Each structure stands twice: as C-alpha cells, then as structure tokens.
C-alpha cells in the first residue's frame, strides 16, 4: 500500500509504477537493471505472478514484477478510457505508449 496525499492509502499497482512493477517483455522500462528491489529472503516467493524468482536468482535482489504484461495492459486500458490523463510523475506512461506504437508499426 502507498499513501497518496489527498486520497489516502491506495494499492501500489493503481499508481502505474512501470519501473517498479512493469514487465519489460511488454514494453516497460527495459533499462531498469539497476533498479532491483531488495526483498528479505524470509518473505518467500508468491505464485500469484508477482515477484517470482527465476532459477539462479537471489531473493535479496528480486524484482517486484507483474508478469504477462498485466500492468501494461491496465495502463493502456486506462489511457483508452482517459486519453487526456497525464501522469504527474513524468513521462513513463507516454514512453510505454510510444514504444508500443513503434513496435506495432515495425510489425
């Protein structure tokens, strides 16, 4: 949970933090190797598609990633419904949209 001024506590995923939760296989920040999230080894690994470990991955540097493009699909659906919305934290959403449009044009 995250606290948002003027709103209160919200689910982390609702903030569309592509650098933290995005799946680079679906267009999210492909240069985030240095942004690994530290997770205590005692927390274990969920099987719900979040924070899963690949073989040989150290639990202390596990990324909190939503798999199968779940966050990216949510972002694009939100953008479709609210096309004039701008992310107040910066251009990460517009960058994702540009990457996806470029990919589509190249195919």
Structure description:
With 107 residues, this protein is mainly alpha-helical. The protein has one domain (16-106). Helix content is 29%, strand content 6%. It has 3 helices and 2 strands; from the N terminus they run ββααα. A two-stranded antiparallel ribbon has the order 1-2. Strand 1 and strand 2 form a beta hairpin. The longest helix is centred in the last third of the chain and has 15 residues, at 92-106. The protein is globular and about 40 Å long.
Quick structural summary:
The protein has 107 residues and is mostly helical. The protein is built from 3 helices and 2 strands, in the order ββααα. Strand 1 and strand 2 form a beta hairpin.
Q: What is the arithmetic mean of pLDDT? A: 74
Strand order of the largest sheet: 1-2
Assembly state: single chain
- What coarse outline follows from CA principal-axis ratios? globular
Q: How would a textbook summarize the main sheet? A: 2 strands, antiparallel
Task: List the SSEs and their pairings.
Layout: E1 2-4, E2 8-10, H1 18-21, H2 70-81, H3 92-106
Descriptive terms for the model:
single chain, about 110 residues, mainly alpha, two-stranded antiparallel sheet, 3 helices, 2 strands, globular
């Amino acid at each position: 949970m995250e606290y948002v001024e003027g709103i209160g506590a919200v689910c982390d995923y609702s903030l569309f933090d592509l650098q933290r939760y995005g799946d680079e296989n679906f267009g999210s920040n492909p240069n985030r190797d240095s942004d690994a999230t530290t997770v205590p080894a005692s927390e274990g690994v969920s099987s719900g598609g979040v924070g899963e470990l690949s073989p040989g991955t150290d639990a202390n540097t596990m990324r909190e990633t939503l798999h199968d493009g779940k966050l990216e699909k949510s972002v694009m659906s939100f953008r479709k419904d609210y096309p004039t919305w701008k992310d107040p934290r910066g251009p990460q959403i517009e960058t994702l949209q540009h990457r996806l449009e470029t990919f589509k044009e190249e195919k």
